[in-house]
Write a sequence for this structure.
């Protein structure tokens, strides 16, 4: 299965600032998925990122708040913009390969 | 809206017992199903995937799929304390190839010695 390197693993940020999360995959994949997981909750899909096209956002998530970059088939970034304490969560990237879906190790974000 | 429902738990079983985790899904056309294990503070890791009706076994884990009943389950035999985690059921979007997954809320399992 694919291996994903996700950075940073955690960060504490001031409200009003932005944080960019990076995911690097060890193989080429068509779609990358960005999830949010709030404490004690399941995974909520933020958006799907295809290389060469704009990301597709789920209801409740907008590009201005969560801009996504997908410059090639092995890399993607998610930016959490103008952060507020409500954005404190774990953010995960994921890719699908023939034998299942793999997740990055996650970014634990705390906004103060 | 695709829905994936799991028994909320928490589920507590003694070491050596069989743990049974259940999941139902709303989209009758769904074809691919996944079980993930998530330890506290870690990202989900894939345990099993199943596409065909019936049982699929991998070591101590057995996934069972019944598409007519829209039901998928995970059995863990000879449960160990190291199996204590949250188990997430996921269903792939109908008609897609490696498309998005819909996740249940997860069932927390505790295996006590």
């Amino acid at each position: 299965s694919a291996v994903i390197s996700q950075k940073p693993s955690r960060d504490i940020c001031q409200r009003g600032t932005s944080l960019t999360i990076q995911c690097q995959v060890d193989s080429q994949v068509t779609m990358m998925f960005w999830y949010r997981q709030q404490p004690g909750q399941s995974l909520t899909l933020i958006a799907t990122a295809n290389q060469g096209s704009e990301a597709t956002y789920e209801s409740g998530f907008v590009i201005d708040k969560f801009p996504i970059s997908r410059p090639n088939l092995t890399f993607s970034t998610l930016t959490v913009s103008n952060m507020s304490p409500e954005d404190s969560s774990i953010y995960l990237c994921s890719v699908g390969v023939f034998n299942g879906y793999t997740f990055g190790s996650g970014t634990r974000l705390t906004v103060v | 809206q695709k829905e994936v429902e799991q028994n909320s738990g928490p589920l507590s079983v003694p070491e050596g017992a069989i743990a049974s985790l259940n999941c139902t899904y709303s989209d009758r056309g769904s074809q691919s199903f996944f079980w993930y294990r998530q330890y506290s503070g870690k990202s989900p890791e894939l345990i099993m995937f199943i596409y065909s009706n019936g049982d699929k076994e991998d070591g101590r884990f057995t996934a069972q799929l019944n598409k007519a009943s829209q039901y998928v389950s995970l059995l863990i035999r000879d449960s160990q304390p190291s199996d204590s985690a949250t188990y997430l059921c996921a269903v792939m979007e109908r008609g897609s190839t490696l498309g998005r997954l819909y996740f249940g809320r997860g069932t927390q399992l505790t295996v006590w010695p």
